[in-house]
Amino acid sequence: MKSTLKLHIFLFIFFNCLFLNNLKAIESISIISNSANLSHSASAKSIDDVKALLKKSCNCIVELNNTKAEILLILPEIDSLNISIQNNNATLRYPSQDYSWTSKFSSNQIELRLEAMSYEGISFGLYGLLQEKLGFRFYHPKQTFIPEIKNWPLTEHFEWKVKARFNKRGFHLHTMHPIELTEALLNVKFENGIEEIKSYIDWLARNQQNYFEFNLLESIERKKWIPYIKQAVDYGKSRGIIMGVDISLHMIQQKAFMLYRNFPASILSRKKQIEKNINWLSQAGFDVYSVEFSTTEFSSGNIRKKKKLQLYLGELIEQKGARLFGREHVVQKEKLLAGKKQREYVMNEAEQAIDSKRGLLVHSVMFYNVSENKAPVYKNANLRHMLDVFNKEVKLRETWYYPESAYWITFDNSVPMTLLPYLNARLNDIVLMDSLGAEGHLTFSSGWEWGYWLTDWSIARWSWSQQFNGKNQEVQPLQYVDILAPENNSIKTLQQLLDLQQEYIKEKELIRYMAPQSFTDELPAFLKLEFQPRPIYSNKFLLKKAMPYQLDTLKKNVIEPLLSFVDKSNLLISQLKSESYSNAEMEEIMNGLEITILRAKHKAQILSYYVEKREASINKTTFNDTNNRLANAAKISEEALKIVKKQEKLYRYPNKLLSEKYKSKTAYNFGYLYTVSNLHYWKREEEQALKKKYGPFFMNIMDVWRIIGLKN
Fold first, then answer.
1. 699, 684 in Cβ contact below 8 A?
2. What is the Cα–Cα distance from 537 to 559, expressed in whole angstroms?
């Protein structure tokens, strides 16, 4: 008995000594590196950045190659003559990037040893350690959370292995739209434009991404743009980022950059224009040309001529040391506008060899994934045909998955709505595409405000899988909200809100009504191109033609669920408000969730107005809106507008750029949050009900002819 007691006392003292030793304030950290790592730009820039970040965090000495420091971060020697290439028959090659850290306590020092096979792997390993283990949060290009590290927070002994799910991981900034970096990328006169782009490239590097692209538009100032953008391209490459540009063969929509501008009579004259433009673009040093081959999203063009130009372009780009990529749109081939019936072009063996070098981006849209049953977008019941395309093409060529993290123009961030199901969809697809052997994952990004930075940031982190001390680390949709809501109860409540949105907005398809009508939804029937989920009954139909059973269906399947969603969501929001949080990021998410609830409440009032007015018409009674539906809708809009004004103070880029009118390089002369600043789409619905005007040009703010390319 006495010996057992002595043992317990000894163990208690021993472990407390260890604990107290770990609580000792850190005085010095040293990165141990050879000269080669300090000479290669990808590793050297990251080493310098990590040194600076650690110094801000620990307020201690952080230096290079001091072997007597308390904490040693020991970097590997890279065999630069034999760097491993970890690609699966890919044409766009990138060095091996998986890494591992092992930690041990030795001679009163903690030694963390990094294993990696390339200089890029060293960069990923350093940033991975900071973000995944030391509490740094690189969540937004304009903001970084730097923890206060007084004592070393990690156990002395561990083994941590990290593997890239995709060889290429990155983001497409959709600069066809006036989002945060559109002007910086396209306007050579934009103040501090290159520095803004570099900040985003730093965000990519810190989040262990290695690919970046954006849309080039015809509106650029050609004489000055190449030397301007080359600064950003060179910087991206120096950080280990593959630099791409999105252009078109001859797409007339939204000012897309065209490789040939007119419709010359011969293939030869088109090729001359293409060659001239590729020669000009190649001066910037792009690694990838992502090319749209159709004139519009809903047309296929002349398949035979297009294929010949595609093959020619592939050879031309390869001669420049770059790679050609194309995309597979979500519109099914049989639904494309193709003029007279055409047969597929049959390539000979030589042409097949050229074509096999073309990479493919398999697209999906909005908050839908490629395996779910319902995704009522672009004339589809779901997007499973895209999964079929992926499974076929991945055997033939380098194939990437290309999903969206937001969707601008009458869906989410232009309303605005913070739609948490994006997190479910993107994580689901990442795990699926990893299992299917996707070579790359490219996220189509449409802006970061109203919480959409959380989706992009989560995607970046999910693109790596981790194993700690032999145990695989699980991934969850809301796992990275710890910066927002460090309390477990808050995360649990946010999960309930996500589940509620998933059930009501997505599965019960309330999104059909919460998203406003797009321009094409209100065109005459033969012109109604369907992009986003569309209401079963239009407002005009409800007012003029709806039968009693249809009104009852609307009440049961739409209005009642909208109100139920509002009530249940408000209870959860009240719980969140009762918990303590004091950061601007959580305030931003809360504002987004609250305005999403108000949007559902607003739409319920508008729809109730139509139902009651139509019922009065059927019953031949006078309708006076005794329930004050439109007045209630207006009050809800005013309540929502107050949230908008609070949120605008949290925007990370100038309001003038995001929320106001200005002459843009895009087809839209206002920032992407202009319709949010005045809740345009909410007010439009109120005015439509009041004035009984349902045409696409009523209160229209879009220059439609400019967007579709019929006007410059």
1. yes
2. 13
Stretch 604-628: mean pLDDT: 95
Query: Per-residue pLDDT tens for 315-334?
Result: 999 999 999 999 988 876 65
81 Cβ neighbours under 8 A, 6+ residues apart: none
Instruction: Tell me the per-residue pLDDT of 464-508, one tens digit each, with 9 for 90 and over.
Output: 999 999 999 999 999 999 888 776 678 899 999 999 999 999 999
- Cα gap 69→63, rounded to integer Å: 9
Torsion sign across C-alpha atoms 693, 697, 702, 708: positive
> CB within 8 A of 408, min separation 6: which ones?
174, 177, 179, 414, 446, 447, 672
Q: Would you place residue 378 in the very low, low, confident or very high pLDDT band (cuts 50, 70, 90)?
A: confident
What's the Rg (C-alpha) of the chain? 28
d(CA 438, CA 180): 29
- Maximum pairwise Cα distance, the chain: 101
26-163, what's its fold?
Chitobiase; domain 2 (3.30.379)
Q: What are the sequence ranges of the domains in the chain? A: 26-163, 168-477, 490-707
**Distance between CA atoms of residues 498 and 589, nearest Å:** 12
Say if residue 524's pLDDT is above 50: yes
Instruction: Write out the two tokens for 89.
Output: 């028959």
Which residues, in sequence order, are CB contacts of 334 under 8 Å at separation 6+? none
Q: What is the DSSP string of 365-386?
A: -TT--TTSS----TT-S-SHHH
Residue 59: pLDDT over 80: yes
- Give the Cα separation of 444 and 306 in Å (integer): 25
Task: Read off the amino acid at residue 548.
Answer: P
Tokens 């909005």 appear where? Answer: 366
The residue with greater pLDDT, 17 or 512, is 512
pLDDT cut 70: percent of the chain above it: 91
Alpha-carbon distance of 656 to 300, in angstroms, equals 38
Q: Quickly name the fold that domain 168-477 has.
A: TIM Barrel (3.20.20)
pLDDT of 191 over the 60 cut = yes
Of 76-80, 291-295, 548-552, the range with the lowest mean pLDDT is 291-295
Residue 110 to residue 71: CA distance in whole angstroms: 5
Determine the Cα–Cα distance for residues 666 and 707; give it in Å rounded to an integer: 9
Q: Which residues contact 183 (CB under 8 A, 6 or more apart)?
A: 190, 193, 657, 664, 665
| Cα–Cα distance, 54 to 282 (Å, whole number) | 38
**Token pair for residue 182?**
């559109």
